[in-house]
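INFO  loader      accepted 1 record
INFO  loader      residues=84
INFO  predictor   begin
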Amino acid sequence: MRQITLHRLQSIMRECAGEDEHAQPLADAANRTFEELGYDSLALLETQSRIHREFGVALPDEAVVTSSTPQALVDHVNGLVNAR
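INFO  predictor   done
INFO  writer      dumping tokens
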């Protein structure tokens, strides 16, 4: 089973939000909130859609809100992947 990593999440978020390649790696900021990292709700919704297409798991809208940090989102997605 393919799982998401912080590195892959950052790649997806860069594509969705247009983030600069030189931005702080999510691995170094895994427990900072998306808001602190400068990601808005539109970027998170696009990320949610990309995760669904790439990993085959449907994230409910509230999962993006309750998974307020990159690490929490990675853990949530991987939990869904493992449950399949």
